[in-house]
Amino acid sequence: MVSTVLVPISAEAQDFKRSFWLHSALAQATETRQAPFTVSLASGLNSVIGNAAMAGIGLSVVGALALGQTDQVSGAGGSLSQNALPTGDYRDTTQGAYGTEYRYNANLAQLNVLPLNNYGYDGTGINVAVVDSGIDASHPEFLNSTIRGYDFSNSATGYGGDPNGHGTHVASIIAGDADGTGMRGVAYDATLYSYRVDADGDGTFEALNTDSRTAAVARRHITDNIQVSNNSWGRKGDVTSYTNSQVRSSYRLSIAAFADAQAAGTLFVVAAGNSGNSEVSIDGGLPYHAPELVDAWLVVVASDENGVETGFTNRCGVAAAFCVTAPGNRVLAADAGTTGYVSLSGTSMAAPFVSGLAAALMEKFPNLTPKQIATRIKTTASLAPLKGFFGETLANDGTAAMEAIFGHGLVDSGAAAAQIGNLTYALGPDVSRGQDLSQSKLALPAGVGRDLAKQIMADDFVVFDSFDNAMFTVSGSQVFEAAAAGFVPSYGAGSATIDAIGGSVKARRALHSQPKEQLIFSFLQQGDTPITADYWQGMAALFAPQPFVVPAAKLRMSWECRQGSISSLMPFLSFGSGALGQGSDRSLEIGLASKVRLGGAIDLISSISVGEQAINFGLDDQSDLIGLVKAEFGVNATLNAANRFFLRYEQSRYSDRAATESDFGMSAARADSWMMGVETQLPEADLTVGVRNDYALSQGTVSLMTPASMLKDGTILYDHKSYGLDRSVRLRPFVAVQHDTYGGTLNFGARFGSWDRSDLEGVELSFSRQF
């Protein structure tokens, strides 16, 4: 079993026999320093590795605690980050010399750090406190690091010195520079705070030897906005050796200070201890007696490089609910007072791996609380790759036995950084109003058109993990889906009747005798029958309706003035039931339609209207009114007794509207549609073949408020995305057939995405019969 150095102190040691241990036990089971040895750091570069073991580690202070200002020892950041791509973009952090540096600490691979580091998550902007013997800021592993701190021990050299070396070793595991030489830490660009609690390196942490002094260190976390606190220290005795009343009495100030720091945003990571006990130390297991601390507290036991429990580590025991496992055997890291490195073992080395992981996760998920970060680490840890010191495995001994040893299991950086629950796209102030993308994607309105849909699909969007609201960025294709094929030109696709004074008649070839002037009242069930329907002699059903307009029952009133068969002029007014106070549709449209016949065979058809229409141009089923100007122009030419040619263009211009979380905004937006073809009258059938350009947005700007970030209280902040519209005309073929059979009418329509007939976008088949 690996030996452990226990350094007792006498200050206020009543009740608890307060003694500190520092986890300097070695895999070689010796406390004596070993001879220096050489390790290759990079091609052609060798460095003397410092002495491999330490006989005793500790810190001590003399006199009262004196608070001073926080200063910065050195600035800049890790070299990998300085030259990095934007956070979230992939980069290989193991190329060339960086690969040699990465492999120098084999535990990084065991921790699976690359899914974080390779996407730029390296602890940037995260403050990590190292409550320890100090940090040797002159060591090469910190030359590009930012180190601030406070000397609680009133030492001669300040928080930037470390005559003992323990704190320097721990700090480099957390945030050693990624500069292509030596080793690197898990969160190599985190900001380190050296909370020095040892005066002279004699192995006694005097600045923590009373409840009040420990509380003072904990409260400093609030002042410095510490997000992760690494504590590779502890007192003699395991967590079950003391009663709840003893702990509450002796740790009264410390418990309150820890709780306040957690509420201010600190996650505490504590080493489990190196006594080989079945329970963690009293300090690591403090939440067992003070449950108010459990949410933002992790205690860490040590495994070796093969996932086997080390002989020196304490087991999780009653602290299993907030206990995890990390590598802690033969960990190579910075050696204070030298330019080299030293291999040490202990739970002191395991804890900083978890602290570094927490810092990288906090950068990736800035909206998560310390509790949520701890929960994510625990949830994604695994017992499967671990084996107990006596050969215990998950398969042979079961979950309960393994949890007593390893808690939640070996931490996994990649799993902790990944999606755990379902992804949700938010549509409101929080995720309670949103779309669960595991159920279905959000459908884009059909009228956005292919060009705009492609822009949206290629863009990036923020979504939230249902497990804890962790933010992820995904492509639009993972959030949205294009609308279905949409309108299929077919004689049965729309209204196949014309309303007239004498009633509704089937619109075919012949024109029925009508008076020169007539007042027509039409009740439109869907409200998408064009005012020029009777001018087109039954072909109106082939025309696509306006995009986004919500189908609703409308009342249309028109006054048609005819000059024989030569011309027709028809002013009209249509309105929804809400305009009369009888429903929710408050749409209103007024306009003018006309037809002029040239040479007895060519009809020029046009219309223009203005008004307000209810549209649904969003991601939910809500609709609202928008100003709309619509114009139509067409040609209906008789070629011979059996054939006629038609050409129709329609344009809609929309008033500007602001974007919301669930509705697209518009600016100078225009939508249009083209269609032309030839209709052939066959015995008992009509056949139309032609080309069309789908009715879709073609000009202007479309915008949407999309989730950008989330506050820790769950409030979502939104960003404004804009997409320019510049659609080109793309004519695509279609075919429609109307056949009289079995006393009714069979309608068939098909639309194609290209001239290749195999690219079939949509088909419609219907049969109608009057009874």
UniProtKB/TrEMBL annotation:
The active site is at 132 (charge relay system), 166 (charge relay system), 348 (charge relay system). One of its GO terms (biological process) is proteolysis. It comes from the Bacteria. It holds the Pfam family Peptidase_S8. GO terms for molecular function: serine-type endopeptidase activity. Residues 123-409 form the Peptidase S8/S53 domain. Keywords: Hydrolase, Protease, Serine protease, Signal. Belongs to the peptidase S8 family. This is Subtilase family protein. The lineage of its organism: Bacteria, Pseudomonadati, Pseudomonadota, Alphaproteobacteria, Rhodobacterales.
